[in-house]
Amino acid sequence: MSGELTTNHIYLTVISLSPHLCSTHCEVPECEDEEDSGCLVMEYKRGLPQVRVPLPTADQECLFTLRPVSNTVGDFLDMIKKEDQAIGCISVSTKEGVRIASSNAIEDLILEDFKLSINNKDFIVKIPERSEKIEDLERLSDIKMLVNQLYAALNVNEHVVKKERVLAESLAKLQVELEPLERQKMELDARASRKTNVMTWMGLGLMSVQFGILARLTWWEYSWDIMEPVTYFVTYGTAMAGYAYYVLTKQEYVLPDVRDRQHLIDVHRRANKIGLNLDEYNRLKTKVTQVEMDLRRLRDPLNPFIPPPTYTSPVDPLSTSLSKLQRTKDGILAFINNFRKK
Q1: CA within 20 to 30 Å of 111's CA: 2, 141, 206, 308, which one?
Q2: Where are the transmembrane segments (predicted)?
Q3: Which residue from 125, 107, 111, 116 is spatially nearest to 41, judged by alpha carbons?
Q4: For residue 107, what pLDDT is reported?
Q5: What is the DSSP code (8-state) at residue 26?
Q6: What is the full DSSP assignment across 194-263?
């Protein structure tokens, strides 16, 4: 292979030595003849180092791509073992024979020359002069160290633990205050639900009675010619009743909305009788929701130090929202106002 250096690649020279030429404490000779020593090439491509290592059984070289920041020496050795199952003993050590731990990062390994041993066959890896890529890695390491020192100086972890403890204590106090109100609220909901169900079945019963009376008058007492205008006025009167409901309540006459409104009216009426402060209940529920959200954010293992999001109060369980008809009306008015401005 050619030993010529280019501007786009960084080459590492690997020299194959026999065991009798290099022992644990011997001086490692420099590579003088690249052709005779069987030099291997390590080059940077797309910012990552690629190492060519000879496999004992395959009698060929295998290319390995390393990640200096995320990979360790153990990852590098495991990759070589997976490619050749016949490798029984493999290790990385310094030139002086001191073994390098598998937990060391690749960015620390490529700072100076090291020795790679595969099945008692040693390869001395010559590290070239420092390049801009290695300096970038060093700057990244310095930034990581600076951030860790900043966290240590500001006691961020201790602050998070203290903040979590304060929030947990606050949540416990809020739950103690909310517990009696929650118990009374559940009783009111149960009574209001029973009353609403009774009124729903009563409405169905009244509609059945109306149907029976009209059927009796149509087919037994009178004829359809007489009852047709009667049914027309009954239908029109029902439409007027629905419109009157909207005029009085500013809500569309939709059965689920009517049921929820009646449920809320009954809850508020009974709450005033027993002295339950619903405003205080809603305030405590809002605080509990906010504290629980802050605790989940602090306990998130991925991003515990992100700033809190803008908090929006949840929909008040004891208040009614705008109906579809009201929203449509507001949209039409907004459209008319924009048209007038133009």
Answers
A1: 2
A2: 198-218, 230-248
A3: 125
A4: 81
A5: S
A6: HHHHHHHHHHHHHHHHHHHHHHHIIIIIS-HHHHHHHHHHHHHHHHHHHHHHHHHHSS---HHHHHHHHH
Distance in angstroms (rounded) separating the CA atoms of residues 306 and 73: 33
Distance, CA of 243 to CA of 325 (rounded, Å):
12
CA–CA dist 44, 8 (Å, integer): 8
pLDDT tens by residue, 304-315: 555 555 444 444
Residue 26 tokens, joined: 């011997």
Helices (H), 119-223: 132-154, 156-216
Pairing of strands 121-126, 42-45: unpaired
Residues 6+ apart with CB under 8 A from 193: 263
Q: Which residues contact 31 (CB under 8 A, 6 or more apart)?
A: 13, 15, 37, 39, 126
* Token pair listed for 254: 């939709």
Helix (H), strand (E) at residue 155: none
Do the beta carbons of residue 14 and residue 128 sit within 8 Å? no
Residue of 69, 66, 91, 72 lying closest to 81 (CA atoms): 91
Please give the structure tokens belonging to residue 94. 């310094």
Residue 20 has pLDDT above 60, yes or no: no
Mean pLDDT, to the nearest integer, of 164-176?
A: 86
Give the tokens for residue 60. Answer: 């060929």
pLDDT, mean over the chain:
73
Q: What is the pLDDT of residues 246-279, one digit of tens each?
A: 888 888 888 888 888 888 888 888 888 888 888 8
Length of the chain: 342
Give domain limits for the chain.
13-138, 156-341
Q: Which residue has the higher pLDDT, 138 or 189?
A: 189
